Each structure stands twice: as C-alpha cells, then as structure tokens.
Amino acid sequence: MVSHQVSIRDDVYQKLIKLKKDDESFSDLIDRLSRQAKGTWDLLEELNGIAGSDDLELEKSIIENRSVLEKVFQKRLGIDE
Assuming Cys at both sites, which of 16, 21, 39, 59 could form a disulfide with 51, CB separation 3.0 to 4.6 Å? Predict the structure, then answer.
C-alpha cells in the first residue's frame, strides 16, 4: 500500500481528532467522511434527475437544499468559506 504525507494546520488536525472514532485511522476517517459526502451528493443528483422540465419548483428546491447541505458539511468539517 502506498502512503502519502500531507501537511495540515494544527486547528484542522484538532477538528479531525474530534471526528475520529477510537478504532479509526486518519485514512479511515477521511474515507468515511468522503463516502458520506459523496452519498449525499449522489442522492441529490438522483433527485435532480426525477424533476421533469415542467417541474421547475422541485428542481429549484433541490438546488437550494444542496447549497444548505454544502454549508452544513463545511461547518461540520470546520472549513471556512
């Protein structure tokens, strides 16, 4: 298995420690977080595909909720905009 060294700020490291489970490596943590985010985006994409061309209200709602969800993820991960 190939490994890579990355540098992160100490404040970000402290946030990751709080998110990490006891039996979880940092690689496992990052993998888990990325799968959770991907799963959410996949669901939104699927819902977006349901909206027909005449259902603009549903499409608008999905787009608005995607923005809110992105802000929630950024806040949970401690990412400043």
Answer: 59
The structure tokens listed for 79 are 């990412």
Distance between CA 68 and CA 62 in Å, rounded? 10
49: domain range? 25-77
Does a structural domain hold residue 55?
A: yes
Give pLDDT tens digits along the chain (81 positions). 888 998 989 988 998 899 899 999 999 988 888 877 676 767 666 666 665 555 667 777 777 788 778 887 777 777 765
Residues 57, 77: Cα–Cα separation, whole Å: 30
Judged by phi (left if over 0) then psi (alpha if -120 to 50, else beta), residue 50 lies in alpha
The number of folded domains in the chain is 1
Backbone phi and psi for residue 22, each to the nearest 5 degrees, phi listed first: -55, -40
